[in-house]
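Here is a complete protein record:
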Amino acid sequence: MRGIGFKPPGSYDPNNQHGGAMFALPRDLRLTDLQAGIIMRHCWKDGGTLSQLENVRKMMSYTYQLVKGKPKGNWDEVKRQWGCQNPSKYRAPTQQIQAKVSVEVDGLSTAMTKEWSPECGMPYPEWCVAQLLVHDSHFCGARSVTDLERIKKSKTHVFAPGQGWMSTVFVGGRAKLERKKGIRKWKLYRVCLCPGGNHQPPPADWHQHLNHLGNPKGEVNWCTSCPLNSFQVVRDLLPDNDKRSYPGWLPAQLRYSKDNVGEDRIMPLIQRWLNIQGANPDNLAFDSNGGRKVLGKLCSRFGIPYHESIELHGDLWPTWKRHYQHDLQRDPLFKRRTQSRDVDECCAALWRIARGIGRGRTERDDPKDLSRLEALLALDCRARGMHAEVNRCLQRPAHELSLT
């Protein structure tokens, strides 16, 4: 490449559109169709991975647009060389895009409904931050880096425990969309997971009575497994003007740090919390990017339709089905990609998950297409105290409920 006029990376005009990292104007390079094809060929022969060669092809398309002055397209020789490549000769990927090992639904259900105790070995303030990270990544499908970083930086929250929900604005909108579609406003939601749906907040002065480990003194008489309470704990231990969600815990000083939990510490903290809470009986090492895969498992287990799950993950139907929820049914009438402004619509999937793990509101609106026999069975089971079991049955797709 140097022999035909390319400069080393970083040696172009530092004031160009790429900060001098590469060429940016037609006068920066001269290239022919044959030369472009030879570059493509060399990259394949030298043993590039598929994703690396795809990036080379994109770069060659950029050179074509600059040299030819066309808005899109690529060199004929590049297309020819790409078609001649033997996929079996690609090098193994250097990065793992999709998670291979992630927590199962039953394990996550156990973890999210198990209350904190001093015997777990994790200080309660740190435990609360870890629970929020697990909830946001596994229940809401927040990506381990891009999404959690936007939540981490957010200072805009709506906290409505009396109504059983809260929201946090993504700083910069939903990730991976802004380059193509511009900023797409998005919020992360959390719902109450207190037993029976009756929110049990910590007392106002709970944080004034901490022991030498940072744990509450005496009996903990509130629901520690509710993410709304975990957020309340973080808020109570931070100054009023500090509205972060994931501050790091300083055990020696018994306070939260001025820094957030770092990117390199997020997954170890999540792994440790899941181990403590009994979600990992086989002592597996979960992949850092497994949150969205877990959300797909939850959607499949609890029959969550696409028009509800999109409020959490934001993916197009083909993408979500192909990568995360393989049994997802098509919803041909649903076209919206933006997040709803209706809180009930945004929280519908989370409330289904809560009912599925035996938490949240025990009463729910029955499907309108229930037969008389199905309605009588639901009433009878509720009279016997089987609220959670009825909810799990009624949230299955309607075609699975018919008794006729």
